[in-house]
């Protein structure tokens, strides 16, 4: 009897890399309950906790990001060589059938080791400009599952690419389908509910900075909201600050006299965004996928230090569809708070403008992205098993 397939999800490091993989793994379990699923990453406490809470095995592979100092360069070489050797051993010992590369520096050594051992590799690319691992290894990959058509010119001409969209967390999928079902039963357009449903209810503005890019938003958003003054009447402000920045952000709001609820992380982010009227956010691939499912009108402020300006490229896909507004933080001649206030002012007061943005951003939603990637993994596993049986 053939042994159960073993799928290794390689990478992580940030929520934008890890959570799409967890969403795909959950769908894969539904399609192939006999399959073993393992995640391999750099070993951060938050990543370990997220994977184990989802019910999957986790293993640590040494890795280091691109160096900026001579000492970092030495560790980059030693750790990544050690990671490559450890990955080759693990792939053999655990009889891994297929590797799913999630992106990020942690995935590079594992994906390279899989290619060297002849193990099929499927790469997930969450951004409009692909990461270095995807660019380097796209030709050797069995398949690249891309969030956007825009990735094709950046990859090898022979790279096998399908556009699946960006996998979102399961909670977003469930709420999206529930919203669509409710609108079908009532015959109401979900976007119009922004205008017609409870016209006197309190509106909600959510601020999402991202894991690495929260600081400038934490510094600028309170001042921007102060400039808007009475235009915020009737609005609730929820501000996710990221780790280590809660007290500073609370102090800024208190000093400016702006009432806001600041939290380190929003645990129930799906239910919060589905009940929100406007967001200020970075432009990571997973964040945009989840904003699309929630239908949340947004002002995007792409992280200016993002590799290869991939957040700018992501945001341009959405602004081209009139689904979001964008502020390029690098090109601001004045303070970021002034630019934020200019973009927010018409959106706070014009509900029809927000409803139009909701319609447009929901056209970009890909609720089946995780299921489509899981189906591609299953197809590859099944075709591999068929080939071995035929041999």
Task: Write up what this structure looks like.
The protein is of the alpha/beta class and 391 residues long. It is 49% helix and 14% strand. The chain has 2 domains: 6-168 and 367-390, Rossmann fold (3-Layer(aba) Sandwich); 170-363, 3-Layer(aba) Sandwich (Rossmann fold), CATH 3.40.50.2000. The chain has a 7-stranded parallel sheet with strand order 3-2-1-4-5-6-7. Helix 2 (45-53) links the parallel strand 2 and strand 3 (57-60). Helix 8 (215-228) runs parallel beside helix 9 and helix 11 packs across helix 14. It is globular and about 65 Å long. The model has no long low-confidence stretch (mean pLDDT 90).
Task: Estimate the strand proportion.
Answer: 5-15%
- Helical/strand content category: alpha/beta
> What composes the largest sheet?
7 strands, parallel
Number of strands: 13
Distance between the termini: 15 Å
| Helix-strand sequence | EHEHEHEHEHEEHHEHEHEHEHEHEHHH
User: CATH H-level name of the largest domain... which superfamily?
Assistant: Glycogen Phosphorylase B
Mind telling me the CATH class of the largest domain? Alpha Beta
Q: Report low-confidence residues grouped into runs of 5 or more.
A: none
General shape: globular
CATH architecture identity of the largest domain: 3-Layer(aba) Sandwich
Number of helices: 15
Mean pLDDT reading:
90
User: Helicity level, as a percent range?
Assistant: 40-55%
Q: How many domains make up the coordinates?
A: 2
């Amino acid at each position: 009897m053939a042994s159960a397939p073993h799928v290794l999800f390689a990478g992580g490091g940030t929520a934008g890399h890890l959570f799409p993989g967890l969403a795909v793994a959950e769908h894969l379990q539904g399609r192939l309950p006999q399959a073993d699923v393992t995640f391999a990453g750099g070993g951060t406490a938050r990543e370990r906790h997220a994977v184990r809470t989802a019910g999957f095995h986790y293993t640590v592979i040494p890795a280091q990001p691109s160096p900026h100092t001579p000492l970092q360069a030495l560790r980059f070489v030693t750790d990544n060589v050690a990671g490559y050797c450890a990955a080759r051993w693990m792939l053999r010992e655990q009889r891994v059938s297929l590797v799913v590369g999630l992106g990020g520096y942690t995935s590079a050594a594992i994906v390279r080791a899989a290619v060297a051992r002849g193990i099929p590799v499927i790469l997930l690319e969450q951004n409009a400009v692909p990461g270095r691992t995807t660019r380097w290894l796209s030709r050797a990959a069995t398949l690249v599952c891309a969030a956007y058509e825009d990735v094709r010119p950046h990859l090898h001409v022979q790279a096998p690419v399908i556009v699946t969209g960006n996998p979102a967390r399961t909670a977003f999928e469930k709420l999206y389908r529930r919203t669509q079902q409710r609108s079908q039963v009532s015959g109401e357009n979900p976007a119009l509910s922004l205008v017609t449903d409870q016209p006197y209810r309190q509106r909600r503005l959510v601020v999402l900075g991202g894991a690495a890019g929260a600081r400038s938003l934490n510094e600028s958003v309170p001042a921007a909201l102060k400039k808007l003054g009475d235009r915020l009447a009737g609005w609730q402000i929820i501000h996710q600050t990221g780790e280590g920045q809660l007290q500073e952000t609370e102090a800024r709001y208190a000093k400016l006299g702006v009432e806001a609820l600041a939290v380190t992380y929003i645990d129930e982010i799906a239910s919060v965004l589905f009940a929100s009227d406007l967001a200020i956010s970075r432009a990571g691939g997973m964040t945009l996928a989840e904003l699309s499912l929630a239908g949340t009108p947004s002002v995007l402020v792409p992280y200016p230090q993002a590799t290869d300006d991939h957040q700018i490229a992501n945001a341009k896909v959405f602004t081209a569809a009139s689904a979001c507004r964008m502020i390029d933080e690098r090109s601001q001649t004045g303070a970021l708070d002034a630019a934020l206030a200019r973009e927010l002012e018409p959106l706070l007061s014009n509900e029809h403008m927000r409803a139009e943005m909701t319609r447009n951003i929901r056209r970009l939603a890909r609720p089946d992205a995780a299921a489509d990637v899981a189906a591609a993994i299953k197809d590859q596993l099944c075709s591999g098993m068929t080939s071995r049986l035929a041999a």
